[in-house]
Design goal:
Layout (H helix, E strand, L loop, with lengths): L2 H40 L86 E4 L2 E4 L2 E7 L11 H17 L6 E7 L4 E3 L5 E2 L2 H11 L26 E2 L16 H9 L4 E6 L6 E5 L6 H27 L10 H8 L10 E4 L2 H18 L16 E8 L6 H13 L4 E5 H10 L2
Parallel strand pairs: 3-4, 3-8, 8-11, 11-12
Antiparallel strand pairs: 1-2, 4-5, 4-6, 5-7, 9-10
Helix pairs in contact: 2-3, 2-9, 4-7, 5-6, 7-8
């Protein structure tokens, strides 16, 4: 082949190869481009967000601004106290316990409501309260002294029926006391006096029942009763009751009649509240001189008046007895003659020194102090401030006329000096009214 034809052949085929190569290169580039895009889309990873670490400041503990001085309390040694623990009465509703009051409220040892005259307390820290015929007193130890002399049963006082009412009311009052309260009761007349319990006892149902059995026959009205079927000798026979004995001649007291012995006995028992139920101050004196001379004629007339008065009293009581009534009672011979023969002159009285409220107060405090020293466990408990921290309260039964005279002034002064209260009750209606007060 000629040279010219060769060159023309190669030139024609060279252009075809270049075109093919160009097409191949472009195809390759397209494939590569498509592969790159597909890979990029498929392999793209999601972004992960991380929280920026935060540095929180730490608070430093501060020291106490106010220093506290803690002192160790000293433990107190328990004090011995004479207490009698009894079970509450099954037939009595025990008041709600109110705490932590310390003083100044009603109640048993503590707070309570109590009903009627004999309200009593609950179990707290306040002193129990008792109300006898409208006279209120507080204490863990209650001592009641009841007059049983003829003066309490004279007609102008209401007679024996009024005395029956007084006894019933006392039993009711004691029955309303909380069983934790301690008590005792004494009965007196002009000379002797008796106490029911040898020492104070809890106000349990059993002990209150003993009081009722002891008092029931005292000055009681009975069918066919005699003219002298009254007085302390008519008390019930209860095991444990005894005469109030002992020598209480202290201070200016040389005589121990009337209510002297029982009230001083209450001081021996360290009573917190004493209640004296009496007709009057009584024969509390000592003789300082003989009576004035009396003419023989007057003496004879007086003796005849006494004899005639006794006959009239016997007739009157026989009539009363036939009608089922209690006999008439006189205070003494003077009272009897003054009633039947008011014009007859009374015998002259002996010269005497009448004991004053101050004398009685001094004697009571002396006995109380001596008793506390000899037997320290007899002292009362809650609220005790001192050996003289007690009260003497007086319920004074007087005639319907309301004339109480010097006896009232003496009792008022006595109760005032001993932080107590005084009240008079005139006749049966007044006694009945005070007993029914709620």
């Amino acid at each position: 082949m000629s040279e010219k034809k060769k060159n023309r052949y190669f030139a024609k085929h060279a252009k075809s190869s270049a075109a093919l190569i160009s097409v191949g290169i472009h195809a390759l580039l397209i494939v590569l481009a498509l592969s790159f895009v597909a890979v990029t889309v498929i392999t793209k990873e999601e972004k992960v967000f991380e929280a920026k670490p935060v540095s929180r400041p730490k608070m430093k503990l501060k020291k106490l601004q106010v220093p506290v001085n803690v002192k160790k309390k000293k433990s107190q040694k328990p004090k011995l106290r004479k207490r009698i623990v009894v079970q509450p009465k099954l037939n009595q509703t025990v008041p709600d316990i109110k705490m932590p009051e310390i003083t100044g409220v009603k109640g048993g040892i503590g707070s309570g409501t109590g009903d009627g005259i004999g309200g009593a307390g609950g179990l707290g820290f306040a002193m129990p309260e008792i109300n006898i015929f409208g006279v209120k007193g507080k204490g863990e130890k209650i001592f009641i002294i009841l007059d049983s002399s003829p003066s309490m049963m004279v007609d102008s006082m209401g007679g024996i029926p009024s005395y029956t009412l007084i006894k019933k009311e006392l039993v009711k009052i004691l029955g309303n006391l909380n069983p934790t309260v301690l008590f005792n009761i004494a009965v007196y007349e002009v000379g002797p006096s008796k106490v029911l319990f040898p020492k104070m006892v809890p106000a349990s149902a059993e002990n209150v029942a003993k009081v009722k059995a002891w008092l029931d026959p005292l000055n009681a009205v009975s069918s066919g009763m005699g003219d002298r079927d009254y007085g302390i000798r008519t008390l019930g026979k209860i095991n444990g009751s005894q005469m109030v004995r002992g020598d209480f001649k202290v201070g200016k007291l040389d005589d121990q009649r009337e209510w002297v012995k029982p009230v001083l006995h209450s001081m021996q028992e360290q009573a917190d509240a004493v209640f004296l139920l009496s007709h009057g101050w009584g024969a509390l004196w000592k003789t300082t001189g003989a009576a004035d001379q009396w003419a023989e004629s007057k003496k004879i007339r007086w003796e005849k008046a006494v004899s005639d008065s006794q006959k009239r009293l016997k007739e009157e009581n026989a009539k009363r007895r036939s009608q089922g009534q209690a006999p008439r009672v006189f205070k003494d011979k003077r009272h009897m003659v003054r009633t039947y023969f008011p014009s007859v002159e009374q015998p002259p009285a002996t010269k005497k020194y009448v004991y004053t409220p101050k004398d009685m107060t001094e004697a009571m405090k002396i006995v109380r102090t001596k008793s506390a020293k000899s037997s320290p466990l007899t002292g009362a408990g809650v609220g005790r401030k001192g050996k003289n921290d007690f009260t003497v309260n007086v319920i004074h039964f007087i005639k319907k006329s309301g004339a109480s005279g010097r006896d009232a002034e003496r009792f008022k002064q006595l109760s005032k000096e001993l932080n107590g209260k005084y009240r008079t009750l005139s006749g049966f209606e007044a006694i009945k009214g005070a007993a029914s007060v709620e």
